[in-house]
Amino acid sequence: MSTDFDAFIAQRRRVAQAYVNGDPGPLGEIAAQANPATFFPPNGGREDGAGHVTAVNARAAKSFTPGGETTLEILHSQASGDLAYWTGLQHAAVRLAGQDQPVEMHLRVTEIFRHEDDAWKLIHRHADPLAEPQPPPEKE
User: pTM for this structure?
Assistant: First the structure.
């Protein structure tokens, strides 16, 4: 993995921390400005288009209030040329607007980045809830 992508991953961790505290600004700074860009959110569906994805993220950040914590558990990552990725888990204890107690979140995450204007930019995020594996159905 390239040294600049290592530094970017450290920045990505700070961006995630800001986001779970209600601040979408740092995520907007690393978001792709050019299409294609997509987001598959944890609650399902899909979002398309760089500007639209940034707006969706900014609105969603408003549901978080200060006092949240998050960690990115990177299982593997790589940068090659103008593309890079990481995949793993995001663990968080967040404070949601209107709730007194922190809420735990555990997500499976894949993020893809493109080198754009001499910086890594997020072009795709897929996040879904981490669930316990289900046993296969028994054959009759």
Answer: 0.91
